[in-house]
Design brief:
Helices cover 20% and strands 30% of the residues. By secondary structure, it is of the alpha/beta class. It has a single domain, classed as Ribonuclease Z/Hydroxyacylglutathione hydrolase-like (Metallo-beta-lactamase, Chain A). The strands form three sheets. The protein has a seven-stranded mixed sheet with strand order 6-5-4-3-2-1-16, with helices on one face. It has a seven-stranded mixed sheet with strand order 7-8-11-12-13-14-15. It has a two-stranded antiparallel ribbon with strand order 9-10. Helix 3 packs parallel to helix 4 and helix 4 runs parallel beside helix 5. The longest helix is centred in the last third of the chain and has 11 residues. Bound molecules: nickel (II) ion and manganese (II) ion.
Length: 228
C-alpha cells in the first residue's frame, strides 16, 4: 500500500512501487519545516513548478541522491543544466517509470525561478497523477480551481488528492471543496496553507466540506503519514 508523509507546505514524501519520491521539497527558508534537505533520501524528485517554495531544495536533493527530477519540459531542462538528472514531460503526457506511471495535469499558475536579474521563466506549472500499486495519487501543485478536475477524476479515479487550500496564490477553502465535488477523490489531504501569514486557512473547515462530498479528509500534521 503506498504512503505519503507530509513534510509541510506542498511537500510530501511518497513511498510507492518500491521507490521513494519527494514532491516539491521546500525546507530551506520554510518556517514550518521539521527536517532539513540533507535528511531526505529519494529516488525521484517531482517538481510542480519553479517557484522557490516548490523547486526549493529540489536540485540539492536530486544531485546528492543521484535522483531523477520529473518535471515539465523547461523546468526539467533547467534542472539538467544545473547538474541534475531529469526526465522532461509535458501536460497531458504520461510515462511509465520503474515505480509506476506519472501523468502531468494542467495547473492554473505560473512557473518562474528567481535569478540575480529577476526571474527565469521555465515553462508551465503542472500537477501530477502518480499511479502505482494500483492506486492513484493526485498532487495539484499550485493552482486555481478548474473544471477539468472533473475530467481527471472521471478518467483516473483518484484514491488520494493533495489540494492547496491557502488562498491568495491558489485555491482557497471554498474552491478546494468545489474541487473535491468535481474530482470525487476517495481521500483528500489539504496542503499549501499556514506556512506564511498570507496563506492562513482552516484545514478543518476544508475537511468538513470535503466529507460532505463523500471524500475521507485527513488533516496531516507535519511529519505524519497516511496510506492510501
Ligand atoms: Ni507557486
Ligand atoms: Mn506555492
Amino acid at each position: 500500500m503506498p504512503t505519503v508523509q507530509y513534510l509541510s507546505h506542498s511537500c510530501f514524501l511518497v513511498k510507492a512501487g518500491g521507490r521513494t519520491l519527494v514532491i516539491d521539497p521546500f525546507f530551506t527558508g520554510n518556517p514550518k519545516a521539521t527536517v532539513k534537505a540533507a535528511d531526505i533520501k529519494a529516488d525521484y524528485v517531482l517538481l510542480t513548478h519553479a517557484h522557490g517554495d516548490h523547486l526549493g531544495d529540489g536540485l540539492e536533493i536530486a544531485k546528492r541522491c543521484k535522483a531523477t527530477v520529473i518535471a515539465a519540459n523547461e523546468l526539467a531542462i533547467y534542472c539538467s543544466m544545473k547538474g541534475a538528472n531529469a526526465h522532461p514531460m509535458h501536460i497531458g503526457g504520461g510515462h511509465d517509470f520503474d515505480f509506476g506511471r506519472v501523468k502531468l495535469t494542467i495547473a492554473h499558475h505560473s512557473s518562474a525561478a528567481s535569478s540575480a536579474t529577476g526571474f527565469d521563466y521555465v515553462g508551465n506549472p503542472c500537477g501530477f497523477l502518480i499511479m502505482a500499486e494500483g492506486k492513484t495519487l493526485y498532487h495539484a501543485g499550485d493552482t486555481g480551481l478548474f473544471y477539468d478536475m472533473k475530467l481527471i477524476g472521471e478518467m483516473h479515479p483518484v484514491d488520494l488528492a493533495l489540494l492547496p487550500i491557502g488562498d491568495n496564490f491558489t485555491m482557497g477553502v471554498e474552491d478546494a471543496i468545489k474541487a473535491v465535488e468535481l474530482m470525487r477523490p476517495r481521500q483528500v489531504v489539504p496542503m499549501h496553507y499556514n506556512t506564511f501569514d498570507l496563506i492562513k486557512a482552516d484545514p478543518q473547515q476544508f475537511a468538513a466540506g470535503a466529507e460532505r462530498h463523500g471524500a475521507k479528509a485527513t488533516v496531516l500534521q507535519i511529519g505524519e503519514s497516511l496510506s492510501y
